[in-house]
Amino acid sequence: MADQYALGYLLASVLGLVVVYVLFSKRNGGKAKSATAATTTATAAVNGECRSTNGDDADVIIVGAGVAGAALAHTLGKDGRRVHVIERDLTEPDRIVGELLQPGGYLKLIELGLEDCVEEIDAQRVFGYALFKDGRNTCLSYPLEKFHSDVSGRSFHNGRFIQRMREKAATLPNVQLEQGTVTTLLEENGTVKGVQYKTKTGEELTKFAPLTIVCDGCFSNLRRSLCNPKVDVPSCFVGLILENCQLPYVNHGHVILADPSPILFYQISSTEIRCLVDVPGQKVPSISNGEMAKYLKTVVAPQVPPEVYDAFIATIEKGNIRTMPNRSMPADPLPTPGALLMGDAFNMRHPLTGGGMTVALSDIVVLRDLLRPLRDMNDAPTLCKYLESFYTLRKPVASTINTLAGALYKVFCASPDQARKEMREACFDYLSLGGVCSTGPVSLLSGLNPRPLSLVVHFFAVAVYGVGRLLLPFPSPKRMWIGARLISSASGIIFPIIKAEGVRQMFFPATVPAYYRAPPAK
Hints:
CATH topology of the largest domain: FAD/NAD(P)-binding domain
Strand content: 15-25%
Helix content: 40-55%
Low-confidence stretches: 1-55
CATH superfamily of the largest domain: FAD/NAD(P)-binding domain
């Protein structure tokens, strides 16, 4: 019996040791796994595991805090979304474009609750355009009679405007602005899970959210996986700031139909006038060796209004001359779960008409209204399918402004072709007629009447008017031939732009299935 007790005691002791060993091993193994997870988060993120090196959660990541990114951050933050904005440089930008907001864009700014961002930056009100050609000029006013007295265009320093919007977005407790450079979109099985970025101090971090919106501007490094980028660079802007002078028409933008291409003037502060000289092609005269100064003095200066001539020459001699490529890119998205493109990263047009910010702000209104009913955005494929309606709903405003910008630039440029010369002359004379011939095109230009069909009607009305000028009072075979070529030239200008915009989405959006897409069930 004693032997049995001894054997039982031995077995119980061994069993107890085994249990203690197993429990101890599990406990230490868990600690080891936790340590390993903490040191391999970045690797796990690239492989698609949703772990973030900076713990706070976000509903939306916005890459870029320019006009589109800053306005979007405030808009989504105001709707209660947790927004994390990553911007390469949070100091005040210094650009020579993005300085004119059309009245239609200002209305969108009001709709987003951002109208106070044009206050306290010495912004100037804009009531229309003055058009100059060969010593003649005409004044084209915005049709603002039906709107509140505060509604007009605004011109300003681009950087001041952006800083005001960044500051306003940053006042919201659920919006975080961080300076950093996004290097990669993190994907898993075709779904964007977040971003990898480098902080201001050089630290590599990852951030995850159900939706990543890329707004990193015209030089975007991230757009290639989210759209089919077909970037065209038809010309470059040469920018100067004139001081101590006054434009012929106060509170109006000035467009000079010069040779070889247009020159723009508009006031950006109470003491400064922005001048943008369009130079066709991608190569401009060198600034460093004096070729640019010579070009501006000999080719451009004789064509500017006499009221600003002296200031124009004085600015050239000071040497503060800058250049910027004018880029055009139709929207051609690749719908990607977990990600969306906005702003110039998504869609660009020639900046001649100053419509870029209007398109961006209008897009934000469309996206805001689509996202508002959604409480949960974690089902990325379903969200992506739903947001396909964004690409159709944005079309009335975006396609009208895009098409007008591209078409007007080609019409306003000088050409040795006689038919194109007649089209340019007809455009100036048509706008000078007043009435609907003036208010119609200007309402399209200003974003107040975003109707693609109205744009096409006015464009071909200009062409028909040009043919009428040729054939009256007595047609001749040569004039009839030029008239036929004028119609052909007009078609060759506008139809390729419309094709790139999408005929069905532009003119018949109600026939696109995504137009009727309802929010996912809650």
